[in-house]
Amino acid sequence: MKSILSVALPQQAYNVVIAPQVRTQVGAWLSDRQQPLLKPGQKVLLVSNPVIFKHYGEQAIASLTQAGFQVSHCILPAGERYKTLKSVQKLYDAALANRLERGSAMVALGGGVIGDMTGFAAATWLRGIAVVQMPTSLLAMVDASIGGKTGVNHPQGKNLIGAFHQPRLVLIDPQVLKTLPAREFRAGMAEVIKYGVIWDVDLFEQLEAAERLDQLRHISADLLQSILTRSCQAKAEVVAEDEKEGGLRAILNYGHTLGHAVESLTGYRSVNHGEAVAIGMVAAGQIAAEMGWWTEAECDRQLALIQKTGLPTHIPAELSINDILETLKTDKKVKDGQVRFVLPTRIGEAKVTNQVEASVIRQVSEQLQAP
Length: 371
Fold this sequence. Notes:
InterPro entries: Dehydroquinate_synthase, DHQ_synth_AroB, DHQ_synth_fam, DHQS/DOIS_N, DHQS_C. This protein is an alpha/beta fold. 44% of the residues lie in helices and 17% in strands.
């Protein structure tokens, strides 16, 4: 099975290719005769982490080398806590050591952390060079690799330093998910559920109909292809309408407002991104129900789906609700001093609002805190 989707941006459209074994064909895709992204002989810096490079790095390098590119690589530590300017400095050092030019490219082979850092380095090296995304986690496949959001974390908040820099190509190989830890697979499912809630009711109902969603081995090849294709299509459609989050694209932050606060306050260690988003979606769903934006029945359907995926639904007991409320004020989506939430109006639709009262946020947060 192969799907090719287009992210139809006016200045630079690009394709998202979802196909088995595409990780071994990256050189061919970059040097495609009809529309080459790079010319043979140009330099490519492959960026990965130690675990992913061990599994797939040599395959990607062999494909790029066979296509005639000059390939070097840079290995960065795995984990959200390493998504810092210090790590990006290592990318700049590698780019300088290997004399990357404006016609060169960086290829991100890894999860969302690698993709975000590589994209940011590419956006800022020589004022912008090409980047190709080869996501290896479910979360990166359906979310982080598409749309051009790049960046790193600041000690006071997540993704506060960054730039919009669209990839030239996204290559998604579902087969690499076989080596993804079960916890990371569940984390990616949080973003999939997000698309169902805010954009694609058919996707939501497909997930509801599945018997189990907590491990890859319980998901059929057809359902996995549908999950990847429909999620990527949703992201592509939203980004095509609003590339730089001037309006509609903000709905992609569903679950991320409170989720980012939980993630940063736990030091990016005990709660990963997808788990934090799941908690944030439960909170946003409860807030929407409290405000009468959607029904209790719809709120319960979302909660049941998150629980079926095996994701957490409670704020960790060790976190202070006061600290969460303070952290929300530093969220990058704050506008005119007002915290903005994405709230569902029904399954398949959502809106952005800055009208959520602090008392409601506190009430829901206290209700959701683990005993």
